[in-house]
Design goal:
65% of the residues lie in helices and 0% in strands. By secondary structure, it is mainly alpha-helical. It has two domains: 43 residues, no CATH class; 123 residues, Up-down Bundle (AhpD-like). Helix 7 packs antiparallel against helix 8. It is globular and about 50 Å long.
Length: 182
């Protein structure tokens, strides 16, 4: 068993305590993932800045990327958090499961995005030409490509942190696809 602990507000720096206070005010709690970033003096602030940067992608599109990348990387924490956020962005349970499986038949543009994000993640940036062509044919641009890769990078960071540490998931735990498909 891994023995990584999530710091409390009292255990982090003054700067990170300010970040905790902002998260508490905005979300009603400090998710364990964010709290864990506060073990570093600057990582939490840097990560929040990355997540809150301006983007050409809508929130719903970012959630598509977050869901599929978290599935590819096997991160239960992020699958769980983004299932909640996906619902807040208007996705149904079935749509979220379909996105995690790697498609979005309910929306052709999002389907191209899911397949592109999955291909980029699986192939470490060397997506197959079919996924790239479909992405652009769906109306995405080179600017969108940059923004998608930044969201993928953001999610890889958090996926890897949780996969390494396995601290407790503080969201309703997402059902493993294996159980849904059984």
């Amino acid at each position: 068993m891994k023995n990584f602990t999530v710091p409390t507000r009292d255990e982090v720096s003054a700067g990170n305590q300010e970040n905790f206070d902002k998260l508490q005010k905005g979300l009603g709690f400090v998710p364990n993932l964010y709290a864990y970033f506060a073990k570093s003096e600057t990582a939490l602030g840097d990560y929040l800045a990355l997540q809150n940067r301006k983007s050409t992608l809508r929130a719903k599109e970012r959630e598509v990327i977050n869901l599929v990348v978290s599935q590819v990387n096997g991160c239960r924490y992020c699958q769980s958090a983004h299932t909640v956020l996906g619902k807040m962005n208007g996705f149904t349970d079935d749509q979220i499961l379909e996105i995690r499986r790697g498609s979005a038949s309910f929306d052709p543009k999002l389907d191209a995005l899911v397949k592109f994000a999955k291909a980029v993640t699986l192939q470490r940036g060397k997506a197959d030409q079919e996924a790239v062509d479909a992405f652009f044919a769906a109306g995405y641009t080179e600017t969108s490509l940059v923004d998608v890769v930044i969201v993928i990078g953001d999610k890889i960071i958090s996926n890897y942190i949780h996969n390494l540490t396995e601290f407790p998931i503080d969201f309703p735990v997402a059902v493993p696809l294996e159980e849904v498909n059984a």
